[in-house]
């Protein structure tokens, strides 16, 4: 039914048409292949319900890409979405897919990261939402294993792959693409030469070129430009081929192709030598489209060979136009790009001496570096960075020793980090580091910078152990190389403090950040944005040590300075300090105030960073806890369910915020009485924390507190006591007795003892705990009040009625001063119920 729509439908442009190269006006033949390809797509869709990917497989230069382009244009009217995905560098595929988020009404990569955005695109296509008629074309996908995970599975649309690799047969329906038939070659030459070439003459030329489409295209272009007859062309081709064979040069390409290409280059050299120079330069970029802006912006580079051309924009434009007329390059005026076939690039590089290759490659490095934007933090420059990334690896930039070029490499890693393309950032950083370290030594300036950025990438990927080990060594190297007050040393010192927090070494992190603050104030001043970032971190250190009053004052200072700054502070910084202040107010026991302030912080995140930005989701998680503390259980549950679902979808189960949201959801479910669901989440959270943070981390012991509480509520008091004892012992060993986590476990452990009937032990534990809590937090802190209520109950159970009543009445007077009558903790205490405390991890 679909095909009966006919040419009118096929001429309709899809609603989404992205990155598809322009149609080749000289495309000829291949009717049978195009028909077979279309029938195969529709047949597999009917027979297997789900269409199989179609893989066009064949040698380089045989016309696979041109066939895919023609298919997209010829059948465009039957699709609502057609998207072209260059795939010769698999690490860059996610960014191309992620560019579809706006069209599919998904969260942009700038909010959720490239990998997550690409995954959301893949899932949307699989669902057919909002489009079920779509076509993805993965061009030059020569590594099936590296591309397979990006292919939508089970979706209603179509996938077309071009590849030189025959191993796609295990994944897709393979469609072999061979050279032209003689008939197709003759038809192509007649169309391309725009004259009625004698059939025997055309057949002779086609035979000499092995019917290879790319060779035929360049042969025809040369004849059109020079007026050379087919007979003369064949004679020159024969001479050039004999010369090549006489040289004994081995090549994976047909000698006829090499000869045809060299004839074109020789003619270009004679007509316009500058064009040949440009062509040799283009050979050292990647096969992806090259932004013309590279040459415009690169005119200030120190390139020697290209220098005169870069200084003469009219000559440069003429040179590129001449190359286009000879079919040696493809110019896309609308996109502002120029592109060279990978086969032509390889032949060009092979034709040069080692020294010439070295010189031209370095000039390309200089061009890329000079043309690149300067600030990866500036979102307005991200599109320019994106266009350059595909040329970094093919150009061999990793081998360049020029420090300015290496700075461009550092900025590429920083850009990929900022757009959350962590896998690519890590791969590039490792490649640069290995090469630069071997050539420049482990303590060169750029090596140390790259080590710092790699440490940040590893941290964001959850590779805490790797990040810690790398940053620890980098900090030592920087202190020795630059000194303790150098800006690079100070930057890595902040990340190293975060590494210490991830190790559970909270006091050491505090000491590290305290030293950093003194250094920042000495170097930058007291209110500089860099100094405020240290204060923000130091507030977190105080909070992790349960020093909440100090944390609140520092966090308030950071918030005021950052939210009011006119320069040097990002929305990321503001969101961090805003939510940090809401969190610390909650930890101080002011739950209603924390809820109000947290609502404002969450609204800011949704407004400025989008609802699925990781910082907005972190704020939502903390807000749900504040709502829970104020008694708004329904509001807390709705928010944390949404937040946990989003974090799981976007970042996966082992992302720290996903794990924290899982803990918060378990605690909320417990409070609404859904104990089995709460236990399931708590049970799954524990091994995740053990895997990510290690068995001895305080957060792991905190997860034991939650599990123990659920065991007791479900009736297994003995198991609860065992886990609470394990948590208490572990916390005393890691954070000490004077810490909220330890107090929480002690309060719950006393409740276990009371539930087991050991009233004397419960009373002793409660007395000791209340004494420690009051000394640390004071008598009016919520933890102190709850510990007092529990002790009054233990005293009564031991027959000490008068002491029990006195303590209880005194405590209730404090509740009346601290909390409104309808506050859940005051109501709980008024009913003479025991208090239990749960654990919620703080964002590190």
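Sequence proposed for the structure above (844 residues):
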């Amino acid at each position: 039914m679909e095909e009966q729509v006919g040419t009118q439908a096929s001429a309709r442009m899809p609603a989404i048409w992205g990155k598809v190269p322009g149609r080749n006006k000289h495309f000829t033949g291949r009717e049978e292949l195009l028909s077979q390809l279309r029938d195969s797509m529709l047949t597999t869709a009917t027979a297997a319900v789900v269409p199989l990917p179609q893989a066009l497989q064949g040698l380089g230069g045989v016309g696979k890409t041109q066939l895919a382009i023609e298919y997209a244009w010829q059948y465009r009217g039957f699709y609502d979405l057609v998207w072209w995905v260059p795939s010769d560098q698999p690490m860059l595929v996610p960014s191309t897919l992620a560019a579809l988020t706006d069209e599919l009404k998904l969260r942009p990569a700038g909010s959720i990261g490239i990998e997550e955005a690409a995954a959301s695109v893949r899932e949307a296509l699989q669902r057919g939402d909002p489009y079920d008629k779509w076509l993805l074309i993965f061009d030059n996908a020569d590594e099936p294993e590296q591309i397979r995970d990006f292919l939508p599975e089970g979706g209603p649309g179509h996938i077309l792959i071009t590849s030189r690799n025959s191993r796609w047969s295990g994944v897709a329906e393979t469609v072999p693409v061979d050279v032209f038939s003689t008939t197709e070659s003759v038809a192509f030459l007649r169309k391309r030469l725009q004259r009625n070439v004698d059939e025997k003459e055309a057949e002779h030329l086609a035979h000499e070129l092995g019917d290879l489409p790319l060779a035929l295209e360049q042969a025809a272009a040369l004849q059109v430009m020079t007026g050379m007859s087919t007979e003369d062309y064949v004679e020159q081709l024969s001479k050039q081929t004999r010369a090549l064979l006489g040289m004994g040069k081995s090549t994976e390409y047909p000698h006829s192709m090499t000869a045809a290409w060299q004839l074109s280059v020789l003619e270009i050299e004679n007509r316009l030598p500058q064009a040949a120079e440009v062509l040799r330069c283009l050979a050292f970029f990647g096969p992806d489209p090259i932004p013309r802006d590279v040459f415009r912006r690169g005119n200030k580079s120190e390139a020697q060979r290209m220098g005169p051309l870069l200084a003469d924009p009219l000559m440069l434009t003429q040179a590129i136009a001449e190359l286009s007329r000879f079919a040696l390059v493809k110019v896309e005026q609308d996109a502002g790009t120029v592109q060279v076939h990978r086969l032509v690039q390889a032949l060009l590089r092979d034709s040069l001496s080692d020294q010439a290759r070295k010189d031209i490659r370095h000039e390309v490095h200089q061009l890329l570096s000079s043309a690149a934007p300067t600030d990866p933090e500036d979102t307005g420059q991200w599109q320019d960075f994106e266009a350059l990334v595909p040329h970094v690896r093919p150009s061999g930039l990793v081998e360049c020793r020029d420090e300015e070029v290496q700075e461009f490499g550092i900025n590429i890693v920083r850009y990929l980090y900022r757009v959350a393309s962590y896998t690519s950032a890590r791969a590039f950083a490792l490649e640069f580091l290995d090469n630069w370290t071997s050539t420049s030594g482990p303590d060169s300036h750029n090596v140390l910078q790259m080590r710092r950025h790699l440490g940040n990438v590893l941290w964001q990927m959850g590779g805490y152990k790797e990040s810690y080990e790398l940053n620890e060594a980098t900090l030592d190297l920087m202190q020795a190389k630059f000194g303790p007050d150098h800006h690079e040393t100070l930057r890595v010192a902040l990340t190293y403090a975060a590494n210490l927090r991830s190790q559970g070494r909270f006091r050491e992190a505090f000491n590290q950040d305290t030293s950093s603050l003194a250094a920042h104030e000495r170097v930058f001043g007291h209110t500089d944005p860099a100094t405020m970032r240290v204060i923000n971190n130091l507030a977190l250190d105080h909070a992790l040590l349960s020093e909440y009053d100090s944390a609140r004052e520092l966090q308030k200072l950071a918030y005021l300075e950052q939210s009011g700054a006119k320069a040097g502070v990002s929305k990321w910084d503001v969101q961090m300090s805003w939510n940090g202040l809401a969190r610390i107010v909650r930890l101080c026991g002011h739950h209603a105030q924390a809820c109000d302030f947290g609502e404002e912080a969450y609204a800011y995140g949704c407004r400025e960073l989008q609802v699925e930005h990781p910082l907005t989701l972190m704020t939502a998680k903390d807000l749900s806890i504040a709502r829970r503390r104020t008694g708004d259980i329904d509001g807390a549950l709705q928010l944390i369910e949404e937040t946990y679902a989003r974090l799981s979808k976007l970042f996966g189960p082992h992302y720290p915020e996903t794990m924290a949201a899982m803990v918060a959801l378990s605690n909320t479910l417990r409070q609404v009485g859904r104990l089995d669901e709460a236990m399931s989440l708590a049970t799954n959270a524990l091994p995740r924390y053990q895997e990510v943070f290690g068995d001895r981390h305080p957060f792991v012991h905190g997860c034991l507190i939650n599990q123990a509480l659920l065991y007791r509520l479900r009736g297994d008091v003995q198991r609860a006591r065992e886990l609470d004892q394990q948590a208490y012992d572990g916390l005393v060993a890691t954070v000490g007795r004077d810490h909220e986590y330890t107090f929480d476990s002690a309060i719950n452990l006393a409740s276990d003892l009371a539930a087991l009937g050991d009233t004397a032990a419960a009373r002793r534990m409660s007395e000791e705990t209340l004494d420690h809590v009051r000394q640390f937090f004071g008598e009016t802190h919520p933890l102190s009040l709850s510990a007092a209520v529990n002790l009054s109950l233990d005293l009564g159970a031991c027959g000490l009625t008068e002491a029990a009543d006195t303590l209880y009445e005194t405590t209730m007077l404090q509740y009346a001063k601290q909390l409104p009558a309808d506050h859940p903790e005051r109501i709980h205490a008024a009913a003479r119920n025991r208090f239990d405390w749960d654990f919620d991890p703080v964002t590190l």
